[in-house]
Amino acid sequence: MTAMDTFLARLDPEMCVVTAEADGERAGCLVGFSSQCSLDPVRFVVWLSEVNRTFRVARSADVLAVHLLARDRRATAELFGGRTGDRVDKFRQVGWRRGYGGAVVLEDAEAWFVGRVVERVPGGDHVGFVLDPVEWGGREASDAPPLRLTDTRTIRPGHPVD
């Protein structure tokens, strides 16, 4: 194990599901790389793998929706993290609605926001989508623990190369 592995092994970020729609195609995936990246104006960045179908759809999308799941929504995490949209229509298996700009908002998220894509930043094998939040919501007074990386370690990525 390298020194960087030692550092990374200590992290346990909240996982989110990112959804996109463009050119009549919907896509969504489980994301472990995301963060607020600016205070004023508020900006948030989600990093999408270049081999992921969601990346291919998101690169043409004007808006993305970012969803935080509760730990008890592991089935949703498995669907969006362990299955590829190249083979499965994930949105037939979950409740969703339209948000700002036609964004796809999942109904079982604890909290969510829709952000306008203001920049796409290359970063190794992922691309960062910098978002300007324009709509948001969530469950009131929820104290459900969030889904974290440690809760999802056994989900095998559903990339099209699997």
Question: Can you characterise this structure?
Answer:
With 162 residues, the protein is of the alpha+beta class. The chain has a single domain (15-137), classed as Pnp Oxidase, Chain A, CATH 2.30.110.10. Helices cover 16% and strands 41% of the residues. The strands form two sheets. It has a seven-stranded antiparallel sheet with strand order 2-1-5-8-9-4-3. A two-stranded antiparallel sheet has the order 6-7. A hairpin with a 5-residue loop joins strand 6 (96-98) and strand 7 (104-106). The radius of gyration is 15 Å and the shape is globular. The mean pLDDT is 92. Residues 142-162 are annotated as: Disordered. Pfam families: Flavin_Reduct. Keywords: Oxidoreductase. Residues 150-162 have a biased composition (Basic and acidic residues).
Question: Mind telling me the C-alpha Rg?
Answer: 15 Å
Number of strands: 9
Class by SSE composition: alpha+beta
CATH superfamily: Electron Transport, Fmn-binding Protein, Chain A
Unreliable segments (pLDDT under 50, ≥5 consecutive)? Answer: none
Major β-sheet annotation:
7 strands, antiparallel
Can you write the helix and strand succession as a string?
HEEEEHEHEEEEH
Q: Strand content of the residues, in percent? A: 35-45%
Counting structural domains, the number is: 1
Order of strands, main sheet, comes to 2-1-5-8-9-4-3
CATH fold-level assignment: Pnp Oxidase, Chain A
| CATH architecture level-2 label | Roll
Which outline best applies? globular
Helical fraction equals: 10-25%
Q: Termini separation (Å)?
A: 26 Å
- Average of per-residue pLDDT values: 92
Count, helices:
4
Per CATH, the class reads Mainly Beta
